[in-house]
Amino acid sequence: MIELNIDGLIGPSHHFGGLSRGNLASTSNAQRVAKPKLAALQGLEKMRWMVERGYHQGFIPPQLRPNFGFFKQLGFRGSITECIEHAAKFSPKLLSIAYSASSMWAANAATVTPSSDSDDGRVHFTVANLLSNSHRALEASETEHLLRILFPASEKFAIHPALPPLPVLADEGAANHSRLCRSYGERGHALFVYGRHYDTQASQLLYPARQTREASAVVAQQHGLTDPIFLQQSPVAINAGAFHNDVVAVANCGVLLFHEYAFESNSQREAFARLREFGYFTPIEVSAAAMSLEQAIQSYFFNSQLLAEPDGDPTNMYLLCPMECREDNKVRTAIEQIICRDDNPIKNADYIDVRESMGNGGGPACLRLRVVLTHAELAAVNSAFLLTVDKIEALQDWVRTHYRETLIVDDLVSPTFADECRAAADSLERLVGTSLYAW
Ligand code: SUG
After folding, report:
1. Which of 45, 48, 286, 382 is deepest in the core (most CB within 10 A)?
2. Is the pLDDT of residue 203 over 90?
3. pLDDT digits over 371-381, tens only?
């Protein structure tokens, strides 16, 4: 079995809307000048990094923006231009929501269970409802539609719609879920990290805890998992700005790399005791002395992609870190120490520039959804979305043709910009040879 990484292709309306409370990058960069063309090219360069090293890499198209369906739900009438004018007068925030390119963070698209772990031998996806933020909650139905296009064979792939949008079922997908295993081909164990459950004291939390234990438990049941492990994220981490677990921890194969303050300590003790029973568990704790929580969140070190070899070999692992990690001496030293130690399989690190996405709180790992597949399942994935260097270059040309160099929130009012976004989407459909959008 192999791991397929599916990255969100960054859409032409990427901007800094300041929409995500508790995501410090998003709120502190609100209204900054965004560079959509650069953002999308950076994302594609990350995909190229993977493809050139032999990894299986796919992409999920950006969602169609502005979100006309959203305007209709609000009862706005008339053409797109009229709806945009109406939204802008009503509340500029609405326009930012309708234009959000947030589906780029594919780690929040769904939670995925490989066929080796599910009770019916299919790969299971549950679309995340993302209900903690309005702009993100709007992604779920289109994400489901796109996942069905990417993974069409229902005898191999089970795609579950998002959980009902109830606060007790708040779900953010793979950003709060890890699969641990000895090797991809063997049965693995799902680790669900949640920020709250129904009776959590809200007073402990400065910022929203976006994942509930209840949501994780429902997803585990839908996927036919027999022994899921639940682990509580520490309120300290959430209050410091770790709005998803993948801001303070990352796992792959047997390795769980995590910050000292990532998890609630009693919960950690219990979960780790269970994980140790499986015989392959390799926890790597980064102490607060080696890297403060603030440094971890600013550099996004734990949002690095932790990769096995392209053929799935778990004994020689790679960290693909955000460029910001190289620029912070303390973080870089911590990475070098992890690589030098012989008690773990992480042997290499490289650094990648995804600064535009980082400006909204999305590092390398946020931009990808991991899907562990057999070769037969990989052959059933819609090949239009599987990348080669040539396809990446064709997508880069498409970006260069259709994307603006810069975008600010005020630009969203212009009907010309809506036309540009729709022309880009139309041309993408032609490029991939598939109808993607409900026009
Ligand atoms: O949900 N930012 C995203 C970042 C998601 C990162 N994903 C993972 N950690 N897996 C979020 O907060 C900001 C958009 C804006 O402010 O315009 C935003 O949605």
Report:
1. 286
2. no
3. 999 999 999 99
